């Protein structure tokens, strides 16, 4: 009977030892709260938002916050002003350009149709564009004002992706060229690389253009002052022309009269001779 009990007791003892936790497991379990408490503040703060949202609505799906992408906005505008003092407005515009760190592109000044006019193209930092327009509107009476904006962020990202993809294609072709032994294949790969490099240059030029347009907001500014009307002066030219024509008409009429009276001109010497002779005859008597 004793021989049967020893194996049973030995089996129970081994089973109890297998279920008892080891010292290493107990130590790891004791250190685990410390590891949890040493988590970074950023991780805990980031996890706090979804936890709070899930606590309010357990069945909802919470989207983690993502960093905002810098936008590339292209601003274009036109403004026309009527001012009272042209020179003073020019000085104020120059000072406004300096204060807002803008750049004067072109300027054209003219006097025509009774107006003193100025046309400028100005490039303004996008952050100062709206403030620049607001101050500029106070320099005179606004006749026209048009402002437009376009978000080119997607276009620029798309251009960057296209450049990267085409550059990878060029690199693959270049690797194949190093192992190519067929002249036809070599020619084909070289032609593809030339085409890809041309497309990359075109996309880079477009990307540069978009970057320059989004770096500065453009404005076409026109302002004018109505000049005072000149004092009226007497124009003698029409009178002189009329007098000349009238005098010429009188001369022509005199010539016409002489043309009608030419027989009298011929008879005048005969009448003078006859009268002279009659006087002499009376004198002898």
TrEMBL record:
<dbReference type="Pfam" id="PF14257">
    <property type="entry name" value="DUF4349"/>
</dbReference>
<protein>
    <submittedName>
        <fullName>DUF4349 domain-containing protein</fullName>
    </submittedName>
</protein>
<dbReference type="InterPro" id="IPR025645">
    <property type="entry name" value="DUF4349"/>
</dbReference>
<feature type="domain" description="DUF4349">
    <location>
        <begin position="71"/>
        <end position="273"/>
    </location>
</feature>
């Amino acid at each position: 009977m004793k021989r049967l009990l020893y194996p049973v007791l030995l089996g129970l003892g081994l089973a109890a030892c297998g279920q008892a936790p080891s010292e290493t497991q107990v130590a790891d379990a004791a250190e685990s709260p410390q590891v949890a408490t040493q988590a970074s503040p950023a991780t805990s703060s980031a996890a706090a938002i979804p936890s709070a949202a899930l606590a309010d609505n357990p069945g909802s799906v919470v989207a983690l916050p993502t960093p905002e992408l810098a936008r590339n906005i292209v601003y274009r505008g036109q403004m026309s002003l009527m001012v009272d003092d042209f020179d003073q407005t020019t000085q104020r515009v120059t000072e406004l350009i300096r204060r807002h760190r803008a750049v004067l592109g072109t300027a054209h000044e003219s006097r025509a149709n009774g107006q003193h006019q100025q046309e400028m193209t100005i490039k303004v930092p996008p952050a100062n564009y709206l403030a620049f327009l607001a101050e500029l509107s106070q320099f005179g009476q606004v006749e026209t004002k048009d402002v437009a904006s376009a978000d080119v962020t997607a276009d620029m990202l798309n251009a960057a992706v296209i450049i990267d993809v085409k550059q990878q294609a060029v690199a693959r072709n270049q690797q194949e060229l190093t192992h190519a032994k067929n002249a036809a294949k070599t020619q084909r790969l070289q032609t593809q690389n030339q085409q890809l490099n041309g497309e990359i240059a075109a996309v880079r030029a477009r990307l540069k253009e978009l970057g320059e347009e989004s770096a500065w907001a453009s404005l076409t500014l026109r302002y004018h002052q109505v000049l005072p009307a000149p004092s009226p002066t007497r124009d003698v030219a029409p009178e002189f022309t009329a007098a000349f024509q009238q005098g010429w008409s009188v001369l022509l009429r005199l010539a016409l009269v002489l043309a009608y009276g030419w027989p009298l001109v011929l008879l005048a010497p005969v009448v003078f001779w006859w009268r002279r002779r009659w006087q002499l005859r009376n004198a002898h008597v």
